[in-house]
Amino acid sequence: MNETMIALVTGANKGIGYEIAAGLGSLGYRVGVGARDATRRETAVGKLRAGGVDAFGVPLDVTDDQSVTDAAELIERLAGRLDALVNNAGISGEMDPGWVQDPTALDLEVLRTVVDTNVMGVVRVTNAMLPLLRRSASPRIVNVSSSVGSLARQSDPDIEIGPIMAAYAPSKSFLNALTVQYARQFAGTDILINAACPGLVATDFTGFQGPRTPEQGATTAIRLATLPDGGPTGLFFEDDGVVPW
To answer: pLDDT tens across 168-181, in order?
Structure first.
């Protein structure tokens, strides 16, 4: 393939998102680093470039319509199309001690904020980037989810799935359900869309608790962003294979 592939990773200034950007860059992609914070964004771009990645900054707040529109226009000017979109930006929402969100005492504003970022933000960004993705010969969309969004695992008493997270976990179930609806809509096209679980990764998101490194957490999303034509779509993956819905 002679033409440079173009990718956008949201929430790419740190953690798993940064490593997804670095991994795609190492494969020869030109990578847009989507992030709200200008200083962190440009620091990440500088670090990626120092490592040999063709990276550029994309000011992007996934909860803001104008910010998302501006990001799409920027990518149009700089690259003209998009081959891979990785919707990585996400938040956990306010937690009680022990990383608990008690559904019986859940602040609806916390739930609203989490859904706005983790679900509506993905729809907002995906739909804004679709015209650019449709210009690609092999467009790929990856929604970074979590196994806590698996209803099958959450409802199985024999599986240790972690603390009750009444805002975050359902937001990922919602994201998974949306991924299926997009896949149905894209049926018969070249667009492949899948959800990726990075596993429990030690980042600031988890208070640096977890057995996996950000590099390990990025591997499934990178694989799904670079699927060959005819690859799977509308599924939920982790390193070991398909995650049950």
So the answer is: 999 999 999 999 99
